[in-house]
Amino acid sequence: MHVNFLLFPDLTQLDLTGPYEVLARAPGFTIDLVSPSMEPVRSDRGLTLLPTATFATAAPCELLVVPGGPGTDQALLDRRWLDFTACQAAGAGFVLGICTGSLLLGAAGLLRGRRAACHWQAREFLASFAATPDESRMCIDGNILTSGGVTSGIDLALKAVALVCDEDAARQIQLQIEYDPQPPFPGGTPRTSPDRIVQRCLDAGRERHAARARAVAQASAALDA
After folding, report:
1. What does the pLDDT look like over 8-51, one tens digit per residue?
2. 99 part of the active site
């Protein structure tokens, strides 16, 4: 069972490393981190990751994992990333979109008529790619699995292991990594967070939201052209 992760600049590293930790523990799974070249790739918070395959050398995969992050906005407009994503997805058994990675799936034409999840601050943009936004932490529509923000990628990867292997394999990994979230504060979603905290997030992300809106509009127009 081969897994390809997209590795693009300014991705959110936990969108990749969370699911990676889960899938790397699944029996018989092999994994590549795929980028246009073998040059190191810097995440949005400064962690540097090394590709293990390029667009030219990447093998076909049974699972394609698309993380999100600020770099999604650039990837949406890069024909290389869109073509590679669409090509790999065509042969994959399952396609996973983590956080705003679902927007890249949308820009690659993979979400038309599908339900999909996304980070709560970007979920509205899914409609631009003819997808139906889903507020769930995880959303499964056919072979397309998408999730909300950042940490939900761990949940999604565990679900993928259950689908590909079996539930016991996923439960074993969940126990191995002691994944039993008990956050110190209530409020990991807009619905469960105090209004003042939601507003702080919105204020902090205002510039990013505007930039993403421009990128999505451009990517959507290109998809419809």
Report:
1. 999 999 999 999 999 999 999 999 999 999 999 999 999 999 99
2. yes
